[in-house]
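User: Hi! I'm working on a homework problem where we have to compare a predicted structure to a textbook description. Could you give me the structure for the chain below?
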Amino acid sequence: MQVAVYAPATSANLSVGFDLLGLAVKRVDGEMLGDIVIVADFKEGDTSLVESSLPAVAFYGKGKFIGKLGNDPDKNLVFAAYKLFKAELDKLNLKVKPLSLTLYKNMPVGSGLGSSSSSSVAALVALNKFHGEPLGKNAMLTLMGELEGLVSGSPHYDNVAPAYLGGLQLMLPAAYPRYQGAPAEPVMVDEQQQTELTVSLPVFSQWIWVLAYPGIVVKTEDARRILPNSYSRREIIAQSSFMAGFVHALYFGDDELAANCLHDYVAEPYRVQLLPNYQELSALLYQAGAKACGISGSGPTYYALTDNYETAEKLRQVFAEHYLQNEEGFIHICETDFDGARVLSEAELERFLREQG
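Assistant: Happy to help. Predicted structure tokens:
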């Protein structure tokens, strides 16, 4: 038996929703943009990574960017996902099966496209499917957030939620611990409101996202470390106003207002120093017809938003001429991925493996 799961790339924050918004994306040409994890029965010839008294588990790393992860499986998010999943099953008095994990690492590390989330989400969904889905949505999201914490220093969900559930996800208060000095928790009649971590927001189907990865790495922990510890009242009011306006516009179908609300007072003013040619790039993108543009996740991937393919091609050209730094860089024209993580059919997996060579 084997289960192959694909988890899509994501663009977190969307400028206005730092740590609160995340969008799953897919290439408009149909090619997969994300990682794949295959969980299969442990076979003769596999090498177990654990002591003989425990259920056997093997790990294999493949794909274009696997060399960026190092050779130690104990530092790999897919193997970390296995250990967290096993611990969760132990709490339920269930046992993991002897199995092998194969990661196809097709997403560049430190890209701002949810690379770590794509791996960890694909791994956890595949493990859960392989075992008959003993864990529910919130339990899975909680584990995914913990895995993100291994990368960024604290659990957060703005990449894992869309990679898992698809679409545009808004993180709810339960997704994050209360800050020191926060007011008392609100009284909620509906207990579910106290535990739900995320909710899907409507998103305009005509929106096209041009995503450009310049080919350099920005580590999430470095991009977070560069941010200030506090913000002024003016900055908080401005960011809150744009975030409220954005959500309002989504629900009322006002795509112009929504696009005009995609501004960032929290992270982008500080993170632009990590990006090549930022000032000229932003101006050129707007001149080429972008409705909005900004940093994807913690960068260095940069997004430009439009609602037509003619403008998307112009934006692609701007990125090609002014943002790509080396042969590892790329530009993809994308739309919203509403599916999130999904099990690949045998035909899809065979096609993918053939393309891998």
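For your comparison, note the following. The longest helix spans residues 233-252. The chain has eleven helices and 13 strands. Good luck with the assignment!
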